[in-house]
């Protein structure tokens, strides 16, 4: 029991974010002090960036608290979707950080060519002043401790955040972990740059590396913004998942077609609204429903969705509603199919559904039977021996040769 409680403690999102807050506090102090000491725009800039990370971590804790609230009548899915707002906010903040990194690094790179620096500053006078990097043997150990220690902490804590976020279904934790992972890569680049500067006495290496750092930050920012934007606007869970759901349905016996499929995310859960068309005898089959639910939910849960809400609706086959007409004539007091349209005395108009006659109406042929057929919206007329004159109807109404005179054999049970 004690081990179980301990495992839950380590996997608790609030404990994870507490670890993150301690990590950022270490980073802010170390990077700002060392960065200002050696005039490194990347190190000190990243330290100030970590101040915003402190507030983001506290915001994540608040969002996790809100997302844990139970659904109610006003919010049937709870407040899980608010976690994707965190992705948008973190992505936007990272974009600002990337821009500042780029400007500082660009200024440092530009300062290596004084003539170019002077020319550009005449065009863009708002560029910040250049502070040359100060590298010394005394400062090197502190730089290695701060940058190397920060990189290792970032890589370890980010995996920890993402792992717990996926296990508990908290997107805000995953988003913050992705940013921390990006921080780790940035800090490794900075560490490599510092070592190269010291070993090769090339201070200018700091600045192209800073530009590359800004690219890495923008890449992470765009990924977070895209994820948050898609979820908040209820974008589909992905074409690959919808294609697999369709394949599962069509591979199930009795399913004729997928009439509609709508999907979206709520937190780390998938909502799937599905309408399938089945053959008539399967319209109320619990076996098909059970098979589809298990297959679809099983697939989505394997794809890291923590829950699946499946709204499954069955519809029967297309009734194919249309009208036909039988040219009839009396024989020994009983109506039979006439040989030709000229010989018939009445037209039996039949409403068809699913290939069966569902209602009939007997009308007199009149002087203009073609006009009657068109007014009744008849698709085809049945005759026993259509003449050449009847065939001319084919341009307006389909003429079909029946195999029998018997109306009952043609599906007519009674004549009304």
Helix and strand arrangement:
Layout lengths: L1 H9 L2 H26 L2 H27 L14 H29 L3 H10 L16 H29 L2 H30 L5 H27 L6 H12 L4 E12 L2 E10 L7 H17 L4 E9 L6 E10 L2 E4 L8 E8 L2 E9 L4 H7 L4 E4 L4 H4 L6 E4 L15
Parallel strand pairs: 2-3, 4-8, 8-9
Antiparallel strand pairs: 1-2, 4-5, 4-6, 6-7
Helix pairs in contact: 2-3, 2-6, 3-4, 3-7, 4-7, 4-8, 6-7, 7-8, 9-10
Describe this structure in words.
The protein is of the alpha/beta class. The protein folds into 3 domains: 2-232, Alpha-lytic protease prodomain-like (Up-down Bundle), CATH 1.20.1510; 239-315, Alpha-Beta Plaits (2-Layer Sandwich); 322-410, Dinitrogenase iron-molybdenum cofactor biosynthesis domain (Nucleotidyltransferase, domain 5, 2-Layer Sandwich), CATH 3.30.420.130. The chain is 55% helix and 17% strand. It contains 12 helices and 9 strands. The protein has helices at 2-10, 13-38, 41-67, 82-110, 114-123, 140-168, 171-200, 206-232, 239-250, 286-302, 369-375, 388-391; strands at residues 255-266, 269-278, 307-315, 322-331, 334-337, 346-353, 356-364, 380-383, 398-401. The strands form 2 sheets. Strands 4, 5, 6, 7, 8 and 9 form a 6-stranded mixed beta sheet that branches. A 3-stranded mixed beta sheet has the order 1-2-3, with helices on one face. Helix 3 (41-67) runs antiparallel to helix 4 and helix 4 (82-110) runs parallel beside helix 7 (171-200). The longest helix has 30 residues, at 171-200. The termini are far apart.
């Amino acid at each position: 029991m004690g081990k179980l409680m301990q495992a839950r403690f380590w996997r608790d999102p609030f404990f994870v974010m507490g670890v993150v807050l301690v990590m950022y506090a270490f980073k802010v102090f170390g990077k700002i002090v060392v960065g200002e000491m050696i005039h490194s725009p990347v190190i000190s800039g990243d330290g100030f960036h970590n101040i915003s990370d402190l507030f983001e971590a506290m915001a994540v804790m608040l969002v996790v608290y809100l997302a844990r609230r139970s659904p109610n009548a006003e919010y049937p899915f709870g407040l899980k979707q608010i976690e994707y707002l965190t992705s948008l906010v973190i992505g936007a903040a990272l974009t600002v950080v990337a821009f500042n990194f780029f400007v500082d690094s660009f200024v440092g790179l530009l300062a290596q060519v004084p003539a170019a620096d002077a020319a550009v500053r005449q065009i863009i006078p708002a560029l910040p002043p250049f502070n040359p990097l100060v590298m010394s043997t005394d400062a090197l150990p502190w730089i290695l401790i701060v940058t190397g220690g920060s990189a290792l902490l970032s890589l370890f804590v980010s995996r920890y955040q993402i792992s717990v976020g996926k296990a508990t279904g908290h997107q805000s934790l995953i988003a913050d972990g992705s940013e921390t992972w990006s921080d780790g890569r940035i800090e490794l680049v900075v560490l490599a740059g510092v070592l190269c500067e010291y070993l090769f006495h090339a201070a200018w290496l700091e600045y192209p590396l800073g530009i590359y750092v800004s690219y890495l930050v923008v890449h992470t920012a765009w990924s977070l913004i895209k994820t948050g934007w898609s979820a908040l606007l209820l974008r589909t869970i992905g074409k690959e998942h919808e294609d697999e759901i369709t394949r599962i349905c069509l591979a199930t016996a009795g399913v004729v077609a997928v009439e509609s499929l709508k999907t979206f995310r709520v937190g780390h859960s998938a909502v799937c609204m599905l309408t399938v068309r089945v053959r008539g005898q399967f319209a109320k089959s619990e076996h098909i429903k059970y098979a589809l639910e298990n297959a679809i939910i099983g697939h989505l849960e394997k794809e890291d969705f923590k829950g699946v809400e499946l709204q499954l609706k069955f519809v029967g086959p297309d009734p194919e509603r249309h009208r036909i007409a039988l040219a009839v004539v009396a024989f020994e007091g009983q109506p039979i199919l006439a040989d030709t349209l000229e010989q018939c005395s009445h037209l039996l108009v039949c409403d068809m559904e699913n290939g069966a006659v569902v209602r009939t109406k007997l009308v007199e042929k009149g002087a203009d039977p073609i006009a009657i057929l068109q007014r009744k919206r008849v698709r085809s007329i049945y005759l026993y021996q259509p003449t050449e004159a009847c065939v001319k109807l084919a341009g307006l109404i389909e003429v079909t040769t029946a195999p029998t005179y018997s109306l009952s054999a043609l599906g007519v049970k009674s004549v009304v």
